[in-house]
What does this fold into?
Amino acid sequence: MLKEHHKWFEHSIPLIASENIPSPAVREAIISDFGNRYAEGWPGERVYAGCVYIDKVEVECMSLAKKLFKAEFADVRPISGVVANLVIYSAFSNPGDVMLASSIPAGGHISHGKKEHSGTAGLVHGLEIEFYPFDAEQMTIDVDKTKKKVEELKAANKLPKIAMFGGSLFLFPHPVKELSDFLKSYNIHINYDAAHVAGLIAGNQFQDPLREGADTLTMSTHKTLFGPQGGLVLGFEKHGDVIKKATFPGLTSSHHIHHMAAKAITFAESLEFGKDYAKQVIKNAKALAEALSDFGFKVLGEKRGFTESHQIALNVLDYSDGGKVEGDLEKANIIVNRQLIPGDIKAGRNYFHPGGIRLGVSEITRLGMKESEMKEIASFIKNVIIDKKNPKRLVSNVKSFRRNYQKVQYCFDKKLGAYEYVKLR
Ligand SMILES: *Cc1c(COP(=O)(O)O)cnc(C)c1O
It folds into this structure.
């Protein structure tokens, strides 16, 4: 089944916005013996022996992370984006405190969510969540209404402890600069969750949260940042100790050393190739959005040119719903995800049958695709959704379209095929 999966992806158009394809060097680090070791604690202060080389790699990993994101402090141990967020909740708030975050139809992630939705912040750390007012036309947080809401919360004795920016449906930068002085005047800790846009920030093509007033930056290392699955926390030296303790012993025992090594390689790749990559990602996203809009699709964020990130969101209610469209496209080897969009919850739609789909161009860009390929992809999507062609009939066209894009670009070594199955026995 593993081999079948590799073959399928070799022949597919992978458009899941939270995914990417790592380089051969990253894949090699993942299968190294580091994956079988423990290195609890901080380099030089480990709980066990056997960490001579692990410590050297981790020191290098932290130094590369700091250089890439121009940060004073880096903790490379959180094993995922969710764990990185939990580090922030644990370090800077107590159960019962209030956090300001985006709702899911407004782009928020379930790790910022309420207890009643089994969201991590509420369920695991006992935070009360208050949603940012959202401007659906501009597809971002409403600055003036947010200020008003914070003042109302203060009057009700519910002043937030943390303001969480960033999200999962994330087309345009969030107003960190516009809100940071205001939030700081109330002593609110500002965290920016860059899980989706970390690679664009690293490549200097999105916003720069640590310069705009964010205190800390959390992320996954495998979305637009093209590394192994993992997490990362960045910030300022003054918060270093409290973050270190929250990560270990608070939220990790083993911190998945093989992924740590692979993160170091990813940071080096991003320092070298990240800018060119991020530029092409954004060009591709705009090209795909424009081509889809030209075919008559309702692309969100039209007023602002559809997108400034790696993502595109479509409202597909003219044809069916996000769930049906996701399934039909999958039959044509086009892999996307259904997406709750603004207005869905009010209209009674749910996560299984939402109004939208989300497309991401991170992985196809890493495979070397450019603007002209985006037009072809838009046309495949039109064939399935608007023309209602039998998706199975399209598979052979998708396969031949994919044939020329089988190597990972924007990395040091391109010997191994992107989806080549590695056999060790
Ligand atoms: C994907 C995502 C996460 C979760 O990251 P994992 O690495 O899968 O744990 C956290 N926050 C946001 C905004 C995300 O989109």
